[in-house]
Design a protein that fits this description.
heterodimer; A: alpha/beta; Rossmann fold; 2 domains; 8 helices; 10 strands; B: mainly alpha; 13 helices; 0% strand; binds adenosine-5'-diphosphate; binds magnesium ion
Amino acid sequence: MAAGKTEARAAGETLVSVQDVSFAYSEDLVLSGVSLDIQEGDFLAVLGPNGSGKTTLLKLILGLLRPDAGRILLKERPAASVTDRTFLGYVPQKATHFDFFFPASVREVVALGLAPPRPWDAAARKREDAAIRESLALVGMEDCLRRRIGSLSGGQQQRVFLARAIVHKPRILFLDEPTTGVDSETVGHFYDMLGGLNRERTIAIVLVTHDIGIVDRNVNKVACLNRTLVYHGSHKEFCRSQAFRDLLAGGHHLVAHRH
Amino acid sequence: MIELLAMGFIQRALLAGLLLGVACALLGVFLILKRDAMIGHGLAHVAFAGVALGLWVRLLPLGLAMAVTIGSALVLVRLKQKAGVHGDTALGIVSSVGMALGILLASLARSFNASLFGFLFGEILAVAPAEVVLAGALALAVAVLVAVRYRPLMAMAFHPEIAKASGVRVERLETALMVLAAVTVVLGMKVVGVLLVTALLVIPAAAGLRAGAHFRGAVLIALGAAVFSVVGGILTALRFDLPVSATIVLLSFLVFLAVLGLRRARA
Ligand SMILES: Nc1ncnc2c1ncn2[C@@H]1O[C@H](COP(=O)(O)OP(=O)(O)O)[C@@H](O)[C@H]1O
Ligand SMILES: [Mg+2]
């Protein structure tokens, strides 16, 4: 497995630092006292049952929500003061639940991840075109440049969203349940593609999922979330840990689902 | 016809209509995609109340309508962004209250007369030079916003959460769209009337969104449909002595149908 290799990676800059963060939508705490760091080059799997606060944690890190207590640093600066967000890439949960009639070509969707070149700057336009083609090729969608996004299958749309999230060459990529609704064969392929991005382009990856199958491949760190951090550590230790056995045993069914 | 085109008031009508059509088409594309298309309808009713208020206090009806409508637009944005009030509900309330207030004020002023009637159905053939200048400024403001913030606007319309995470100031853009929509509605009221201003905001943009294979195409088709409907509508109305605003709207509807038909035929 690739895991041995990935764990040997040297830790670089701390891209994200979550420090004792708590958050509630209304009265009940959805997250309490969560702390974790994400280093350059990490491949972190955030595991947890439905309703355990995984999406909420991502939204807090991305600045879509503000923590009630604790703080979040991006590249060692308070998250709220970071205006240049080009080092982040994000594929949200249910990304593909958009208006299928939206008249946008695949090319236009991917281009949304880039600052527009000046119309008269032919060289910059060429560079943009190359960047778009390259990131579509990475996800195997280079032949769909001119297709309307709404006319693609769910799995293809997901890959276009991934291309959009990496087209500007971010240093960290957040993916929220990217494989729901994708068949299991494709899922393996998808995880390998992420592994490739992680190793060859040193993009740190934060993958939120309730699929514990992910921990077999590519991942070097695991965080187990159940409204609080149940486990946080290396992938190897995780496989020997109680948290892992609990997950396997379906212990997560004990958590009340709130929707 | 040629002599007609040489007349100042007709030139002003064509120019004001064209400029307004441009503003409506561009704004309409984003409002429809954000599911805010009925904003124009709601704000038009508010604008109507503003005009009635102006006629009652005998003070700058258009200016008062502008202030009241922009104010309401800002309140609507705030309600949507902060209080999480469903857009449809907020609009349903605002538009009916606006209309009721307008009628009440008009009857108080005993002036449900020609001037208020003009605002209901539009007086494009009585557009003042100053109003043409205003329409020009509006069209310019909308065009500049769309040109300079094209990708952020598209990103917001496509997927606001990803847009926000990548640093787009979604709330600011929403506010800008809403204020421009308010100004458009007030000027549009003068041109096509309060009853039909929604049509100009929605129909050409809807045609573009249905016909476009990509976003840029959709925007351009919307612009074309708006300009064609306004200019064609005015000329047709003059030629056959028809009511202008109704002709504009029906022509834009024909364009919409043609676009649907073309799509069918291609598919
Ligand atoms: N916008 C919201 N308003 C109120 N409660 C919410 C909202 N979003 C999520 N929740 C609640 O917060 C909890 C955690 O949700 P979430 O972070 O989406 O979990 P996960 O992604 O792990 O499934 C759930 O109980 C959910 O019902
Ligand atoms: Mg989730």
